[in-house]
Write a structure and sequence with these properties.
Elements lengths: L2 E5 L3 H13 L3 E5 L2 H10 L4 E4 L2 E2 L2 E2 H9 L6 E5 L4 H9 L4 E4 L4 H18 L5 E4 L2 E4 L4 E4 L2 E3 L3 H11 L8 H9 L8 H15 L9 E4 L3 E4 L4
Parallel strand pairs: 1-2, 1-3, 3-6, 6-7
Antiparallel strand pairs: 4-5, 8-9, 9-10, 10-11, 12-13
Length: 228
């Protein structure tokens, strides 16, 4: 049985979503404050975290940052904060998906199932990726360039893994957004994706102004280039 850690202070939302999730066969642990969340996270083991951003004693962003220091568990933000900057921040600090209120229950459950499925598939086979002087330790969530550890955001890490798992294949922006964030451009657009790629290039390329690892294929997308 998959265990879901649900951090939310709205009692009516907690009641309705908990009932729906339990009917889907999930076990739910609920925290209504940051303090409760910290204790439950320390004492439990979970397959998915759902975070509200605005809590009585803190922010879901801070909880996400703390979790990301020790875990790669999938994190979904569920919040009324629907500004693009809020969404980008949530994904960049380690969120895997972002749903804004109000939302349809069927869509919410579908996104949870997809997020858990992608998480299971991510670690299913490979434990290490190695190409172009870049080494990724998947079980540890660590990335090295020529033996030196890199400091990547969660979004940069996921993007790098996607490229390295698909060497020499052109990935369209739509494919990338769908595989990493399951948002089909609803939350982050191609311009935001361009920013993520540029940030990643500054960390892994020898010369980011002339990238050799992540190359742009005009009018098609990007690819992880293994050819010299």
């Amino acid at each position: 049985m998959k265990r879901i850690f649900f951090v939310e202070d709205d009692l009516s939302l907690i009641s309705g979503l908990s009932f729906a999730l339990k009917r889907q066969g999930y076990e739910i642990a609920i925290a209504r404050t940051s303090l409760e969340a910290e204790k439950l996270w320390t004492d439990g083991k979970y397959d998915l975290v759902i975070l509200d951003i605005s809590l009585p004693d803190g922010s879901g962003y801070d909880i996400c940052k703390k979790i990301r220091k020790t875990s790669k568990v999938p994190i979904m933000f569920l919040t009324a904060a629907d500004e693009e900057t809020d969404i980008i921040m949530g994904l960049d600090i380690g969120g895997d998906d972002y749903i804004t209120k109000p939302f349809k229950l069927a869509v919410f459950l579908s996104r949870i199932n997809a997020l858990l499925r992608r998480s299971d598939n991510f670690y299913q086979t490979d434990t290490e990726l190695d190409s172009n002087g870049i080494n990724v330790q998947l079980l540890k969530g660590e990335v090295y360039k020529n033996g030196e550890q890199l400091d990547l955001t969660a979004s940069e890490y996921k993007l790098l893994c996607l490229f390295m798992k698909n060497p020499d294949l052109v990935l369209s922006p739509e494919q990338i957004l769908g595989k990493l964030w399951d948002c089909n451009g609803s939350y982050i657009d191609n311009n935001a994706l361009t920013v993520y790629v540029r940030r990643l290039r500054t960390k892994i390329e020898d010369d980011p102004s002339e990238p050799r690892k992540i190359v742009t294929v005009r009018r098609m997308g990007y690819k992880w280039n293994t050819a010299d």
